[in-house]
Write a structure and sequence with these properties.
single chain, 366 residues, alpha+beta
């Protein structure tokens, strides 16, 4: 990209009177030049409520250069935003820019302009769109002092793969709504991405490798919810996604969980484990149908048994039981299946969220 403006929308969970925007050059090999930026309450089709549109600044300046490997945090911008508001963030990229730091499965439209800086325009004419997040990492809100945050740490199922774009139907989105309806002062942070694994890089950095940057970097984190491991099981093997990778044992994955548990506890953070949902016949008929085998199912069953009974987690959410077809053990329920035997549809994601005991997320004393 060069001499173009990108406008993106993200829903916040808790409300406040000002916001700060975090942009990321985490995977960039060159400095990232942001020529200008803005933030406001999102309208429809990439437009912004004109009365709320504010320029972003960094140290009082309207532009900034982000070093390779680094994030950049904007100055606080006065913006009154209610809980569950949709926030629009625009950035102008004046120089030729490689799309290195991208969340590819954003399930949200990114609007990309033709030539020019349109960050201060309420109406936005897009020359193209993507369903990915480009450089936008976080939106911080100055919530009330007693607020806290839950980080949802996962893979494509937590990322909302197969859910309706621009509809906020990821299961953590539904949790955010439930928390607000219950008057809980809790922010929801989704740190999931499609393809993520506990032990091995692939479509991004493994969970052990990104724990510090993606969990500890967030303010006021009280709880981590971990739902990850199905890609560790499914990716390796003949006709799978990474055929040369060694298949981990259940104990290998459990050892990875224990590392994450110990690291969370070392920082005073609770960690809740979610069981791995059914995946029988995932990608059946496709070149990647080796993602599922009966032998891999045995690993999933053993991992889930440890999550439930191993005593390592501070709480457990049993999504396996919620999503399993009662007539076909090991299979995803037909009415919750988006069609690949792995990812839920919108109804499935809502069912997952509705099955969560909010007290398990934050502790019964909350």
């Amino acid at each position: 990209m060069e001499n173009q403006t990108v406008r993106q929308v993200a829903r916040i969970s808790v409300g406040g009177k000002s916001v700060r925007v975090v942009l990321s050059n985490a995977f960039g090999e060159k400095p990232l030049t942001i020529g200008a930026g803005s933030v406001g309450i999102a309208g429809k089709d990439g437009n912004v409520d004109q009365a709320t549109l504010k320029p972003l600044t960094w140290g009082g300046k309207s532009s900034v250069v982000v070093p390779p490997g680094a994030p950049i945090l904007s100055d606080p911008i006065a913006l009154s935003a209610e809980a569950l508001s949709e926030i629009s963030v625009s950035i102008f990229l004046p120089k030729k820019t490689a799309l290195a730091s991208v969340h590819w499965d954003g399930v949200q439209t990114a609007y990309i302009s033709g030539p020019g800086n349109f960050t201060n325009e309420a109406a936005f004419k897009a020359d193209s769109t993507l369903k990915s997040r480009l450089f936008l990492s976080d939106i911080w809100v100055d919530a009330v002092p007693e607020s806290e945050a839950i980080v949802f740490f996962g893979d494509s199922i937590t990322d909302g793969n197969c859910s309706t774009p621009d509809a906020n139907n990821r299961w953590p989105d539904h949790i955010a709504k439930r928390l607000q309806e219950a008057n809980r002062k809790v922010a929801v942070v989704n740190e999931a991405f499609s393809g993520n694994r506990v032990l091995t890089d692939g479509m991004g950095v493994n969970a052990l490798g990104r724990f510090d940057s993606d969990i500890l970097s967030h303010p006021k984190v009280s709880t981590v919810v971990l739902m990850m491991g199905i890609n560790d099981i499914g990716w390796p093997g003949e006709n799978a996604i990474t055929p040369d990778d060694k298949e981990p044992t259940a104990q290998d994955i459990i050892t990875g969980y224990k590392q994450l548990i110990d690291r969370a506890h070392a920082h005073g953070i609770r960690i809740v484990g979610a069981t791995l949902t059914p995946f029988a016949e995932t990608f059946k008929g496709l070149p990647t149908e080796g993602y599922y085998t009966p032998e891999k199912e045995k690993i999933r069953v053993a991992v889930n048994e440890w999550i439930r009974t191993g005593g390592g987690f501070d709480g457990v959410v049993d999504f396996d039981k919620v999503m399993e077809n009662p007539a076909k053990p090991g299979y995803l329920r037909d009415d919750y299946d988006c069609g690949d035997n792995l990812h839920p549809n919108d109804a499935g994601y809502k069912a997952m969220a509705d099955a969560v005991d909010l007290d398990v997320l934050l502790g019964s004393a909350k």
